[in-house]
Amino acid sequence: MKRKAKTMGATLSSVSSRSVPPVTAASAPSEHFFPYPLEILEEIFLNLPPHEVVCLCRLVCRQWKEVADSESLWRERCRRERYQRCDESRIPDDWRLFYFMCKKRRNLLKNPIGENKMKDWQILNNGGDKWKIEGLMVPHPNKKVQRNFVTSYDMCKKAQMIDLEKEGYNPSFMDQFQPDIRISDWYAPRWDCASEYTISVQLLNHKKEVVEQFKPDTIYFEQWNDQQWNQMTHVFRNYGPGVRYIQFIHGGKDRQFWAGWYGIRVTDSCVEICPAVDK
């Protein structure tokens, strides 16, 4: 039955993309288009790309729309792709929305490793010889990272404001489901200069007032350190309704006031909305 369902799914996919003309209210058949048990139709949909189910299949007829919109279809899709809720006590009102929120998980910070210079970052402090972007002094655990932002001999801080609704996370989803919000930041000192690192992440409401905040103590490095990369992480949970923005701020400086760029280095910063636990 599995093999047959997949074959039917492949056939349906090719027909959907090549042969079926656009469906309009006038042309859509009013009776059942698929004369088999709905469980078989659901199994076919489970083997099609999710966007085809939403954008093509649900437009064919009333029966197909019913299956494409069904809770059981999207709940089963979540199960098969191992999208397990972070909080089992919170049951999604809309399993399809939950599925696509999990599917689109990504870093909401733009230009996190300086490939586009300082684009998308708001400079709050630009002390000393100002922010600079350089190549790595020691390899980063993520081999894709080849650049970092470097601070100078007076405080350097930069920020990004994330508008969650513009990023596709609507207010009702944020309020009802309150998905985990995970932040991550990588920082490293120079081996030959003392430095300091600071970070602050705030969850804000529609008035940009603080709902919850992560602000650990400033981290200090002494001269002649091991120069290795360190990761700062935090997960916001159960923060309540009303979160509409995330404000990410980090930076630092060197502590010996040397001209040039001997301060803390930061890169590969990340803010993610995590409705499901990590696989």
From TrEMBL:
<dbReference type="GO" id="GO:0031146">
    <property type="term" value="P:SCF-dependent proteasomal ubiquitin-dependent protein catabolic process"/>
</dbReference>
<dbReference type="InterPro" id="IPR008979">
    <property type="entry name" value="Galactose-bd-like_sf"/>
</dbReference>
<dbReference type="GO" id="GO:0006516">
    <property type="term" value="P:glycoprotein catabolic process"/>
</dbReference>
<dbReference type="GO" id="GO:0005737">
    <property type="term" value="C:cytoplasm"/>
</dbReference>
<feature type="domain" description="F-box">
    <location>
        <begin position="30"/>
        <end position="77"/>
    </location>
</feature>
<dbReference type="GO" id="GO:0061630">
    <property type="term" value="F:ubiquitin protein ligase activity"/>
</dbReference>
<dbReference type="Pfam" id="PF12937">
    <property type="entry name" value="F-box-like"/>
</dbReference>
<dbReference type="GO" id="GO:0036503">
    <property type="term" value="P:ERAD pathway"/>
</dbReference>
<feature type="domain" description="FBA">
    <location>
        <begin position="98"/>
        <end position="275"/>
    </location>
</feature>
<keyword id="KW-0833">Ubl conjugation pathway</keyword>
<dbReference type="InterPro" id="IPR039752">
    <property type="entry name" value="F-box_only"/>
</dbReference>
<dbReference type="InterPro" id="IPR007397">
    <property type="entry name" value="F-box-assoc_dom"/>
</dbReference>
<dbReference type="GO" id="GO:0019005">
    <property type="term" value="C:SCF ubiquitin ligase complex"/>
</dbReference>
<dbReference type="InterPro" id="IPR001810">
    <property type="entry name" value="F-box_dom"/>
</dbReference>
<dbReference type="InterPro" id="IPR036047">
    <property type="entry name" value="F-box-like_dom_sf"/>
</dbReference>
<protein>
    <recommendedName>
        <fullName>F-box domain-containing protein</fullName>
    </recommendedName>
</protein>
<dbReference type="Pfam" id="PF04300">
    <property type="entry name" value="FBA"/>
</dbReference>
